[in-house]
Amino acid sequence: MWVWPIVYFALGMFNILFAWLGMIDFMLPLMFAVFGGNKYFCNHLCGRSQLFAYLPGKLRCSRGKLAPGWMRSSWFRYAFLVFFMAMFANVCWQSWLVFGGARPVSETVKLLWVFRVPWGWANVAGIVPDWAVQFAYGLYSLMLTSALIGLAVMALYRPRTWCAFCPMGAVTQVICRVRGGNERQ
Questions:
Q1: What torsion do the CA atoms of 84, 85, 86, 91 make, to the nearest 10 degrees?
Q2: Residue 184: inside a domain, yes or no?
Q3: Digit-coded pLDDT (tens) for 3-48
Q4: Sequence-ordered list of residues with C-beta below 8 angstroms from that of 18, at least 6 positions apart, any chain
Q5: Pick from 23, 25, 24, 21: which is nearest to 13 by CA?
Q6: Which domain holds residue 156?
Q7: Helices 130-156/74-99 angle, 10° precision
Q8: What domain count does the chain have?
């Protein structure tokens, strides 16, 4: 499964519409948590966490240090979830504005939510509605930014440090607690 994130980002560079495949990374963990009452997806199937565990072994690119306590704390985990959800809501809002004709498609990917990277070569205008293209750019930006954050904390700390504050992990943990399921499975 560690190959999935690499394939995802490569396909998005070829055609931005492949960014919609990122919804798989949102839906599968939720389905496992809702229907299975566990975090099986996060612990065994998540391509990102497997990539972060795989790279340090092959490339020796992790210091292997314990992350600071604040980064592993629940307040940071849920604050990052709120921030991440706000960024996802912004992606949806920008797509809605394009759908309503209030603005044109922005053919850029934003790294770290700030730095605009022109990405027009990966667009196939006219095949799908403009709002779907806008959503793809936004989702790809979100996925790429979170991957860069994950790679940075992997290099600075232990390989799967990202998992300590992963937004999907936080959501599935809440679902499992509400359901009374096994969070560790």
A1: 90
A2: no
A3: 899 999 999 888 889 999 999 999 999 999 999 988 999 989 999 9
A4: 8, 11, 12, 136
A5: 21
A6: 3-179
A7: 160
A8: 1
Does the reported pTM lie above 0.90? no
Per-residue tokens: 28: 């599968």
Determine, yes or no, domain membership for 81.
yes
The CA–CA distances, whole Å, from 14 to 7, 78, 99, 104, 141 equal: 11, 34, 24, 21, 15
DSSP string for residues in 68-129 = PHHHHSHHHHHHHHHHHHHHHHHHHHHHHHHHTTSS----EEEETTTEEEE-GGG--TTSS-
- Collapsing DSSP to helix, strand or coil, 172 comes out as helix
CA dist., res. 82 & res. 89, Å (int): 10
